[in-house]
Amino acid sequence: MYHEKIAGTHVFYCLYRGCCKMAATSATTFSIGSTASAGCKVGHLKQPKAFSIKFNSKNYLRTFNGLKSANSVNCRSVSSFLGSESQTALKRSYKGKLQKQNQRSYSYVQPQASYKVAVLGAAGGIGQPLALLVKMSPLVSALNLYDIANVKGVAADLSHCNTPSQVSDFTGASELANCLRDVNVVVIPAGVPRKPGMTRDDLFNINANIVRTLVEAVADNCPDAFIHIISNPVNSTVPIAAEVLKQKGVYDPKKLFGVTTLDVVRANTFVAQKKNLKLIDVDVPVIGGHAGITILPLLSKTKPSVTFTDTEVEELTVRIQNAGTEVVEAKAGAGSATLSMAYAAARFVESSLRALDGDSDVYECAYIQSDLTELPFFASRIKLGRNGVEAVIGSELQGLTEYEQKALEALKPELKASIEKGVAFVQKQPVTA
To answer: The pTM is what?
Structure first.
């Protein structure tokens, strides 16, 4: 943020060095001669009355997570200090159309970073790019990176990036507790990746133990944190995490999330490509689970409204469901969908941070404990707030097409079996309360 005096008019610009795009729509009110709501003081200017400039709060940090952002700034005069001509000039200055560049003076204001994020599995294929993207967030004050090996170099590398968060590394079980202490958001991408020919269920025996161990530590050290589960199979690992937290006596279903954002990101991308739409405008809700046929994009609910042939619906649905396999096969044994997963996970982290920071207009799809169907866990669109899930948006399950309704019924048995597998895993090996 910097203040500039141009031709006798005082204006403010939002500038986040190292992350300018991400903070381009910051929901903050700045008043001359007052303290900005971002927690930074703007220098006092000698003017007879105060005025304020308010960025659209509904679009706070939207540029980063791919949602639609506003193109305008709302300038509100709370006194007769600004006439209509002055307000018009002020608006133009924010659009970069003001040509006069003389009499400039600058003073920078740093956005306030106040949240601690821990990435467990930070040295892995998803963990490294995810940590980089989280490091770019202006809302993060501390970024704690944990893994069983090779995390020290990742932390050293990221610590050179000139963004606000302080990076710390933690290696091995003996340092896990310190990594998690007082953390606000925990992200768990730890585990083995998929290889050609593997299903998400093939990963179960290895990743189930990893998730169980890590969530036990979360329960002991930061039980109030938002917990983001990325480790596959998510359809089972989220129920595993829930059972562990229950046995520890700290389960809050509003704060446990299976990150299915990648399914939404893929759906938006594929639909935009197929229909030649502007990507930032496209929003396709994805419900169900996070594996194969349990992934159900509701193409009939696509925004903006668009029509699909029956063939297009089937082709798009199958591609979205099998997109992970598409990447695994393309990498030919060299890895899975790490970069797109990191991007999607970072989007969900940013949404969580915005919600924690008081943004009242944060919606994402996620796999959570739910009563939308007879299944105990189900992915759907949710509204996020300071305490986690604030509302589950069930209206999108109404008015489904015949194809979608049949697909919904078809996914339930497989999703039910995955949930029961996760619950049984923990119940067979109870954790220490």
So the answer is: 0.77
